Amino acid sequence: MALRVGRVGLFVALIGFGVVTGFGVGSASSYAGPPKEENEDVKKNVARNYVHEGDEALEKNELTRALDRFERAERLIPAPTVQLRLGRLYIRLGNLLAAREKLNTAAKTDLAPDASPAFYKAVIEAQRELAALEPRIPTLEISGPDLSKGAMIDKKMIEPEVLAKPIAVNPGAHTVELSCCGAQEVTPKEGEHLKVVFGAMPKPEPPKGPGLNLKFIGGLVSLGIGGVSLGVGVYSSLQVIAYRDRYAPYQARYTADQNLCNIADGVAPDKPVVGGVLTTNEKTDVQGICSGSDTARLMQIVAYPVAAIGVGVGVTLLVLSRRDSKPTASSLEVLPILGASQNGLLVRGTF
Q1: Which of 86, 108, 150, 221 could form an S-S bond across to 102 if both were Cys, CB 3.0 to 4.6 Å?
Q2: Three-state SS for 210?
Q3: Which domain holds residue 248?
Q4: For residue 261, how far is the Cα from the chain centroid?
Q5: Which residues contact 163 (CB under 8 A, 6 or more apart)?
Q6: pLDDT beneath 50, residues of the chain
């Protein structure tokens, strides 16, 4: 009897365990969380809170915070009321292209018959504001010798087929690039249609060798002329001294007021104070002395000024040539020489 009761109790216990376990599994598998309507209500409430926070941020002119709240609301509930707010905010931020996208999405919203009046109002306002926005968006018309590889606007690729029509951009600075022709900086204003014309890039010219430095060459020539003229002047001075030494013995026969050169030429009477009159050979010698002395004096008058001008111009040109050209290993020095045995200029340099 005890064994029988134990078997019956065990059997009843097993049956009870199975019933409880089966009920638990069945209940767990059949539970799918809260109803879908409840989830939608939660999302709507969260989205409304984001919109409310965005409106408060706009009142405080906190545009970045308002943008964040409106974008979060749109991700939860993409309603036209939220998209209208985003479109208006993008306009304030200067992003007209993003504003056009949001207003266009709101304007094309397919509303249910039982949609709220706020949604209908948002769609109508989005359509009206979109029409007013379109003329404000600037465009770029790009032309160039080769558009087959497209173009880049602010590092964004624009395909060749898109370049056939004006391209809408936001107002402000943009960089337009063509692979064939380089880059241009453009700054279209609101409503402006800007043509961006590219020309072929010039081929780089081979590097040129150093050209002739005309000032340097002219300086050397002027120094040469000045040096030669100085030499001629010095030689003429020595000639005048030599002629004076030859002239002195003849002049000693006459008084100082008698012109020996005129006497030798027969223009003045030959009246010596001491010694005899000039012989034919002496007259010839005096005539040569007078002629040579006159020539030497004339050479002095011309040579020394030319020497001074030549040296001055040459030094000036050489100084200017060094300013115009890059420093090189060439150098030139013009040094005056003053001494008991010689006077003049010393020109030395390396080229």
Answers
A1: 86
A2: coil
A3: 214-350
A4: 78
A5: 142, 147, 150, 151
A6: 1-33, 327-329, 338-341
Instruction: Give the per-residue pLDDT at 10.
Output: 40
Give dist(CA 341, CA 181) in Å, integer: 71
Question: Which residues, including other chains, have CB under 8 Å from residue 292's CB and lie 6 or more apart?
Answer: 239, 243
21 burial (CB, 10 Å; 0-12 / 13-18 / 19+) is: exposed
Task: Indicate whether 183 belongs to any domain.
Answer: yes
Distance between CA atoms of 96 and 168, rounded to whole angstroms? 9
Q: Give pLDDT tens digits for 296-308.
A: 889 889 988 988 8
The CATH number linked to 126 is: 1.25.40.10
Q: What is the DSSP letter of 190?
A: T
Which of 87, 111, 135 lies at the terminal end of a domain, its last residue? 135
pTM here? Answer: 0.50
pLDDT digits (tens, 9 = 90+) for 59-75: 999 999 999 999 999 99
Separation of alpha carbons 315 and 265, rounded Å: 47
Length of the chain, please?
351
Partners of residue 224 on adjacent β-strands: none
